[in-house]
From TrEMBL:
Residues 251-260 have a biased composition (Polar residues). The keyword Metal-binding applies. Residues 139-171 form the SWIM-type domain. Residues 238-260 are annotated as: Disordered. GO terms for molecular function: zinc ion binding. It holds the Pfam family SWIM. This is SWIM-type domain-containing protein.
Length: 260
């Protein structure tokens, strides 16, 4: 299991104290959006924040190192801030394939949003469209090891476009190259175990600490209904900006076939 969250002290402590939540049974990863948000709160530089996102979401180690060198060139303190965070926790290039390409807690936020809007409505289908572009980079595909130098097969567990091209050239089913944990049987096994329900609060163990109210936090009463949608913060990047970043990324097309 891979748990993705922010770097709240209570969460980190709970994960560390969990005797069973250790590799290979479980790993803890940091939400990249929260890392970038905390980074920007400390450094206060939007350009460096964008570079932080690029570094964390890059699957190739050489590109990650190149981006980090650019951050170091622009601000040594910004580089030191990121360098002191365990790279396995927040970068796709050092993750080891645990996150399967999911770098943020957006998935849970999306679920919350869907549940909020669908309390009295039927669920709607969502159609996504992908646009594939071609670049001039050459990547090495190793079918036997189920890996590609682009890093996407290693990260997602699903053959990338380069691997699918090689599979087609050698009459190999690309579907057979998908990692086992995407199999229907593996999915069923995930939920075949017994889940303990949360008991009533009366049965909870007494905490060994005292809850103290923060007097600086006040509940503001306003006329009308209470707000149910969370307040947006600086992490809410505009879609146009994300689209511009995607357009600036260089695609990969050339393939060096290697089936050894």
């Amino acid at each position: 299991m891979c748990l993705i969250s922010d770097r709240h002290g209570g969460l980190i402590k709970a994960v560390r104290e969990g005797p069973d939540f250790v590799s290979p049974h479980g790993v803890h990863r940091y939400c990249l959006r929260h890392v970038c948000s905390n980074f920007n709160s400390s450094i206060k530089n939007v350009v460096l924040k964008d570079l932080c996102w690029q570094a964390g979401s890059e699957y190739q180690l050489r590109k990650f190192n190149r981006i980090m060198e650019e951050i170091k060139k622009q601000d040594v303190k910004a580089f030191a801030y990121l360098d002191q965070i365990n790279k396995e926790k927040w970068t796709a290039s050092h993750d080891g394939g645990w996150q399967c390409g999911i770098l943020t807690t957006n998935m849970s936020e999306c679920i919350n949003g869907v549940l909020k809007g669908a309390r009295r409505l039927p669920s709607a289908s969502v159609v996504t469209r992908r646009q594939n572009r071609h670049g001039m980079n050459t990547h090495v595909v190793k079918i036997a090891n189920r890996e590609c130098s682009c890093g996407k097969w290693n990260q997602f567990g699903i053959p990338c476009s380069h691997a699918q091209k090689v599979c087609g050239a050698y009459n190999i089913s690309a579907a057979s190259m998908v990692k086992d944990y995407y199999d229907v049987m593996a999915y069923n096994n995930t939920y075949s175990k017994h889940f303990e329900p949360v008991q009533s609060e009366d049965y909870w163990d007494d905490p060994n600490f005292q809850l103290v109210h923060d007097p600086t936090i006040r509940t503001v009463t306003r006329p009308g209904r209470n707000q149910t949608t969370r307040i947006h913060n600086e992490m809410e990047w505009r879609q146009t900006r994300a689209r511009q970043e995607a357009q600036q990324q260089q695609g990969d097309s050339s393939i060096q076939e290697n089936v050894s």
